[in-house]
Fold this sequence. Notes:
The structure is a single chain. By secondary structure, this protein is an alpha/beta fold. It contains 16 helices and six strands. Strands 1, 2, 3, 4, 5 and 6 form a six-stranded mixed sheet that branches. Helix 4 packs across helix 15, helix 7 crosses helix 15 and helix 10 packs antiparallel against helix 11. It is globular and about 95 Å long. The protein starts with 18 loop residues before the first helix and ends with a helix. The model has no long low-confidence stretch (mean pLDDT 90).
Amino acid sequence: MRPRVTExxxxxxxxxxxxxxLVDQRHGLVKLAGLIDWDAAALxxxxxxxxxxxxxxxxxxxxxxxxxxxxxxxxxDELVVERWVENPYWQFFCGEQYxxxxxxxxxxxxxxxxxxxxxxxxxxxxALTIKxxxxxxxxxxxxxxxxxxxxxxxxxxxxxxxxxxxxxxxRAALVRxxxxxxxxxxxxxxxxGKRALMMNGRYAHARQMKRARREQKRLHTxxxxxxxxxxxxxxxTAKTEALEGERLRSKFARLFDISERIHSQKRARAxxxxxxxxxxxxxxxxxxxxxxxxKKYEFGNKVSVASTSKESFVVGMKSLPGNPxxxxxxxAAIEQVISLSGVTPKEAYVDRGYKGHGxxxxxxxNLKVWIAGTKRGVTGAINKKLKxxxxxxxxxxxxxxxxxxxxxxLKGTQGDAINAILCGAGHNLRKILRQLALFIVLCLIxxxxxxxxxxxxxxxxxxxxx
Length: 466
């Protein structure tokens, strides 16, 4: 059913104070609440709800506001709902008239809201922050024509993938699903598997690699035996009850595919092989080489980041599953920037990993791409912008340290895309709030200077200091 609409009561309650009279009007969140186009969000997301079915949904402004606060202050779904109850400014930002002492929603509703709006809805939320940045002059309209583009890795919430741990996790997942489905296994290897994994780690730590490989082979054998046992039990069920057998086959299909790939994959991947699996619960994870001494590999997905050259304001965030070459991702990143900001960039500054992007041959022929290290045709102004390209690196650092880009807990490739885009929205909100706070400080300084320089105040100041 369509979401509830928060309606302000005209007649004030006798024993309750409105939030507008409780909060400081100069606070950044109070000012920001009046700059975001909440009506456009309600109109855009309201069409995603069915009419006349189920109970009314939570207000759109509340759900969008909670996601903005979550990514602006780097909180989980549970924490942002918990702190919403304690903070009157957060409640005012989300459109409440009076202070509430109970949680507005269950945290699980935020998961369902993200699944409902998808990647396109999150891009709309990022576009609203760009409009708010233009309204507060955090970013100038002319700055949208000159952007910096780079890629980074969004780490997934998985453990470091060793072969022994993958065998253990796949076997445990099969045993767990078999028990839920009522399948009685000949042997589950719960106790023996746990011991084999523990001894594999101990032997590897002691550099006793032959013994460690022996325990790893034992885990590999246990996984194979459980897979064959489950397959036999499903086939036996299908002979007696065809419908039940088909139901079990469809239920185990995805987990069987993951387990078989883990069981058969080798350390060295040959040409034509399927991509290696590094996690049972997140098979979409890729291994991306960083070439850094402290962190040679990262396990997650690649993300393209586009920011303005002058203010480092994020105007594009795009998840790139499958670990593509950087140069092949530039066109999609520029098209997203045009879609979100409504402005076609004239210049894009990238690092040397974007060589061979081939963007001049396409529809974006008017865009000039400057690659770091270019010497031919570089003027003094272009050289300054090429040096300014490095400013996107601290933007990525803030997205990871202040935001939630360093550890993604959302599920699947859609979760990767949603988390990346909302991290960009949170970064923009933090910059807007700093801009609003700086504006208030400057206004107070100017007011103080004006009072001191006026003649009546000068006489009072002279009398006070005499």
